Amino acid sequence: MSSQTAPTQTGQTHSDDPTTPPTTDGETASTTADPLSLDLVFEVLKNERRRRVLQFLRERSGTVSLSDVAEHIAAIENDKPEKALSSQERKRVYVGLYQCHLPKMDDTDVVDFDGNRGTIDLGDNAEQLYPFLEAEAEDQQPWPKYYLGLSALSLAVFGLAQLAAPAVLTPVFAVSLLGFALLGGVHLSTA
Known about the structure:
This protein has 7 helices and 3 strands. By secondary structure, it is mainly α.
């Protein structure tokens, strides 16, 4: 395991004892969450479904049902509204979350998963993962759309230039532009 730990946010902590005042950064306090190693952080975040669970829980406050989470993730994965999902599409995500992803996240205290009740809530270590999720969101750019747009524009300019001065342009240029357009289309379809 790595000796490095995930970045944590500091702030006030509290105890369950109402007579104990909250502690701040300058005071020594024992928090309920131990810093996760980078290996554990990346182990949890390496799967897209687990990242989607964290994003879903972050957007909602309190405990949510496993069915709601599974339905939300199934809608994203199948690119459909939740009401248009088949029972098989819901079940596939539900079973994967129930058997694999949520127990792994519960073991690292990223979520509190009650399999008997089918409920999920954020765990004490969840906050340690959010800086990584935010960095991923910032890195995602619609580059394939840019490539495809540039290809379409280049093909249009090439077509106009071909009409105006056909002797100047060569077929090699046309083939390369067409290849660029095809590459952008393939990149877009796999994104």
